[in-house]
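Honest question from a wet-lab person: if I give you the sequences of every part of a complex, can you actually get the arrangement of the whole thing, not just the pieces? Trying it with mine:
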Amino acid sequence: MAARKPMFSQTNLVDTTPLPASIPAVTEIGSSSAPLLSASFFIGARCRPYNDDFMQCKTNNPGRGEVECLKEGRRVTRCARSVVEDINKSCLDQFRKHWTCLDNNNQQLWQCRPAEWKLNKCVFEKLQLEKVIPDTPEGEIPVHLRKRQMYAHQRLLGNGPADLDLIKKEGNAKS
Amino acid sequence: MPQDLPPIGGYGPVQYKRNLPVRGFRPSIMLLGVAGIMTFGFWKLGKGIREQNELAREKMWSRIHLIPLLTAEEDRDLVRRHLADQAREKQLLGRETSPYNSDRFVRPTFAVTPNQKSS
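Yes, you can. This is the full assembly:
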């Protein structure tokens, strides 16, 4: 995709024509970057198949993907929206704290671990979505669960995600 | 007249060695200490780099999970503008033309704006 946007030095081009009625409408995600970053791993956990479908469609239609993959695109957006709405419903407080923290810390995830642990815990309990970073080296604590965050302003973070171990045990017992 | 001779018992010793106090640890200990400090530093550096790698992986995956969503939104917008452009063209020219000899979707670099009033 040629990612060169039309630019005007004298004006902004605003085209408000809606999509034709033959293409179903979908509510856009309507969220800024910090909440999306905060929810990204949960979006990935639930919507991975839709995302892969969409990217596969784009790969299979080189040069036509924008037009051909609208259906898959709508599914992706709907799924991501459902995740954000569910988090808003069940864990609004923790979610809001985490993304506010991200906004205040230049969106550096390692500055906001305590808030993140609380959010992860809540989301896992209510929605069964877990944050997993793929391809983490074997035998290492995943970086988002480390008690000591080397690059954070506040390095030592209390007891760490002690609750999360408990959640994991419960999760294993369930499955 | 007697000859000029050294004094009886000879001259006193000439001090040709510097008489500076030896300060600090033995060189071997200094060397060991420096090696130790550097080993610690490199160990620490290695840990920091590993952590940075993991943080980078986390960031990349968070982005990977978001990219389809963002792309889908942008594609919809592009298609919407494209269709609107074509409709406008059809209305003005009576037919749809394309400057490209293929049916690839080309993101427009130029767009036609309504005539602006010249002051």
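Two things worth pointing out. Chain B touches chain A at residues 47-48, 51-52, 54-55, 57-59, 61-69, 71-73, 75-76, 78-85, 87, 102-111, 113, 116 (CB under 8 Å). The mean pLDDT of chain B is 88.
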